[in-house]
Automatic annotation (TrEMBL):
PANTHER family: STEROL 3-BETA-GLUCOSYLTRANSFERASE, STEROL 3-BETA-GLUCOSYLTRANSFERASE UGT80A2. Residues 295-415 form the Erythromycin biosynthesis protein CIII-like C-terminal domain. Pfam families: EryCIII-like_C. It comes from the Bacteria. Signal peptide: none annotated. This is UDP:flavonoid glycosyltransferase YjiC (YdhE family). InterPro entries: EryCIII-like_C (IPR010610), Glycosyltransferase_28 (IPR050426), UDP_glucos_trans (IPR002213). It comes from Nonomuraea roseoviolacea subsp. carminata.
Length: 423
């Protein structure tokens, strides 16, 4: 029986394709799907077969254009400054605007389920106020502290012994404290929506019926324990609508796929150092800049093809290694294809993803400031040491089993069915 789903998302770079992948899958199953989103995403929403709805008062941005990016975390001087921009410009600061727009849409055209990208606490607030089931989509590793694992964010190795456990308690407190500066704005949004205030911002992320993590359980730590309403539903491996056609560099040398952030993170100089590194190795390089960098501005040697985009899921069938910023989407697509990684984290969740790749034995990490020789050495190491490909293939088998059925769609349909049965 067709159900009605209202999605809420924002121009968050790599977080967009997995959200729209689920919207597309629901639409293909005959459901009514609308997506509240920044106007810059409306072509992608329509390409997914869903109906785009513009935010009215909530922020509008374009992650591929530094002038129009809402957060501009690339301007921050410290990781804490970058976090504060996310908190104040998306999660908490404009929560009342997101809540107002979402409630207005729900009142004009009711939905059976609200599906929100997990950083949109304002939209989640609106779903709670409307009294409908709410599902939150986490498009990376679960980003909040839980028992059985180091606190996520800084990319810490798993703790060992009493000192390690003390470290985890101290770092957990340090990670959660900055969220509380956003609590007044979040609570103002809740009160304006007819809801009581919350005691913590971190707790507000759990005020949903289902928390769907679009990340492989196999990539997370085995002993980590999660909230009861959380489900690992597997990654979404679709390419974005703007990926275009694949062009491979000529030759038969091992292929190295290079892909940094699809949003602007001041990555052009790093792209050039990676290209220079590949020029010293007996490989072919396929360097995709994404929409944030003009490929014509990236200097590269003759064995490296620089292009704006290309479907990574197809390129990975030919690749021997991926060099990436360790954005969740690129990292997981590579692992799903059994391709090991050289990770060069730029910020956001990327240090954490890179650490998990390293712990799994499926790749190595180098610093953003690494020179071309250091990058070349890391690529050669991953190419030459069979254990990296072996562990990547192990993860690929586990990801294939996890994605054999569409667990995300099943969870959302079950929420809708319970909602309509209750009505």
């Amino acid at each position: 029986m067709p159900e009605s789903f209202l999605f809420a998302t924002w121009a968050g770079g790599g977080a967009v394709p997995p959200v729209l992948s689920i919207a597309r899958a629901l639409r293909e199953r005959g459901h009514d799907v609308r997506v509240l989103a920044d106007s810059s995403l409306h072509e992608e929403v329509a390409a997914a077969g869903a109906e785009p709805i513009a935010w009215t008062t909530a922020p509008q941005g374009d992650a591929g254009d530094p002038a129009k990016d809402v957060i501009k975390d690339f301007e921050a001087r410290t990781p804490l400054g970058a976090f504060a921009r996310l908190r104040d410009r998306i999660v908490c600061g404009p929560a009342a605007d997101y809540a107002r727009d979402t409630l207005a849409e729900l009142r004009a055209r009711p939905a059976d389920v609200l599906v929100a990208e997990h950083m949109l606490l304002g939209a989640i607030t609106a779903g709670e106020a409307a009294g409908i089931p709410v599902a939150s989509l986490v498009t990376t590793l679960y980003p909040f502290p839980t028992p059985g694992a180091p606190p996520p964010g800084p990319g810490l190795a798993p703790a060992e012994g009493a000192l390690g456990r003390l470290r985890d308690r101290v770092v957990t407190a340090l990670i959660l404290k900055p969220w509380e500066k956003g609590r007044p704005a979040l609570n103002a949004a809740r009160v304006a929506s007819g809801l009581p205030p919350v005691g913590s911002v971190a707790g507000a992320f759990d005020r949903v019926d289902r928390l769907l993590v679009l990340s492989p359980r196999a990539l997370d730590y085995p002993g980590r324990r999660f909230p009861d309403h959380l489900r690992h539903v597997g990654p979404r491996l679709d390419d974005p609508a703007w990926a275009g056609e694949l062009e491979l560099p000529a030759g038969d040398a091992p292929l190295v796929l290079v892909g940094l952030s699809s949003s602007f993170m001041n990555q052009r100089a790093l792209l050039e150092r990676i290209a220079e590194a590949l020029g010293t190795l007996p490989v072919r390089g396929l360097l995709t800049t994404g929409p944030a960098v003009d490929p014509a501005t990236v200097r590269a040697p003759g064995n490296v093809l620089v292009t704006a985009a290309g479907p990574h899921s197809v390129a990975l069938r030919h690749a021997a290694v991926t060099v990436t910023h360790a954005g969740h989407g690129t990292a997981v697509k590579s692992l799903a294809a059994g391709v090991p990684l050289v990770c060069v984290p730029l910020g956001r969740d990327q240090a954490e993803v890179a650490r998990h790749v390293e712990v799994a034995g499926a790749g190595v990490t180098v610093k953003r400031s690494a020179s071309s020789p250091v990058i070349a050495q890391a690529v050669a190491r991953v190419l030459d040491e069979p254990s990296y490909r072996r562990e990547a293939r192990r993860l690929a088998a586990e990801i294939a089993a996890e994605t054999a059925t569409d667990q995300a769609v099943a969870e959302l349909e079950a929420l809708a069915t319970r909602a309509t049965a209750r009505d």
